[in-house]
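Usage example:
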Amino acid sequence: MDINSVPQEESVTYAKNKKAIYASDENGNVNIVGSSGWSVEETVTLQALESLEDSAREAYCEVKKGEKSPLYYYMFALRMDLELLSQVTGFFKWTIKRDFNPNIFNKIKDKRLEVYADVMGKRKEELRILEEIKDYGCK
Amino acid sequence: MVVSDYIHKHSAHCESGVISSMLSYYGLHLSEPMVFGLSNALTFAYLPFIKIGGMPMIGYRTMPKSIIKNIQKNLKIKIKLETFRDKEKGEKRLNELLSENRLVGAQTSIYWLPYFPEEMRFHFNVHNLIIYGKEGDEYLISDPVFENPVRCDSKSLEKSRFAKGLMAPKGLLYYPVDIPKNIDLKPILVKSIHKTAKAMLTTPVPIAGLKGINLLAKAILKLETKDKKYAKLFLGHIIRNQEEIGTGGAGFRYMYASFLKEASEIFDNNKILEDCSQMMLEVGDIWREFALLIAKAIRSKKDIDFKLIYDKLLLVKDAEEETYKKMLEFKY
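Running the assembly step on the lines above writes:
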């Protein structure tokens, strides 16, 4: 890439940061140029963020309806999925799925809740209740 | 405590940036592209059986930590690595090293680093940075992918260093111990350039090198029969791996072009290496054209022309192939 074609499109996903890209000058020397963003990258990052946000919103409403435990929502809110939550806790997936059941989650052992709280960077009491997000407007 | 006279440098990629800044600080001046090239870090791998967030892993560089590993092997230098089971011991050791006026490299998870913008905080466990001091409760951090130095409170840094899961950092700290000021790079350069070219051209497994690009191209064609939303997420995932994570696939090609140009100067402006550098720049450009095609497909409501995207990726493959063949022509 030529130094003059390094995109400067101020992507929102860069949040005012710059990314270093190697680009070539007229003498063929290739050095770092700061890029303020590229719409192509912005598109795919936003796509991924939207997909995560959708999962969190759907989960939120299911918890609100009492179909799932708050743990289910927090997993998505923290940009995790079942696979990742299983990896970080060391719990089998089927046992985590069981904890998505509100009745079982209400009776969760303190030690097990502690593990969830630790890997999710939350306090145990926080995990027990669903946080209030008005924007989600569940039907 | 602050490590004296350290100057932060903005880099394209975390691991090569950390190693370049670190070695340069201790008197072995190697640019980021030099570190990247000399550690044979350029590659391609498509691993459909390893899933992250439900999507296959696609790599445009060698495995995380391979730069730290290979630069030691190829330059015969020593970087000490320490991991910890105990979080407190991990922090104590970090403070100890800083008090010895050492620059300390660390492996971290991006998600738990508060200075990253929300938009970039994904669960990614293999981010490298340099810690160069501590003031009050805050660590002074030289994060290579940021323009300026940043700060991080001790609690967040601990969380990030001890994040669990795939490729967990386990508190990894590393620092150079025995660094010579001068190394005869010429024989190492020849070897590295040939090794990278050969690996890309003749890898025996179908998932790596040019064969890996082929396999990914085929996977794109197969998307035609899949659900449209999934197809778009899959395509987006390729580009996120290519452009956003690390420095991106095209970005690595541009960095390697810079390496080849620098190498050509070491060999008295060697013409073949200069040509290779130009060719590698063009390879990067075609990767970006490929990304652009995909972004357009994602934004559009019309049916996706998978064949068009497939053809572009095969063009990438051809351009890469020619470049690696040219690299093998370089003799010294």
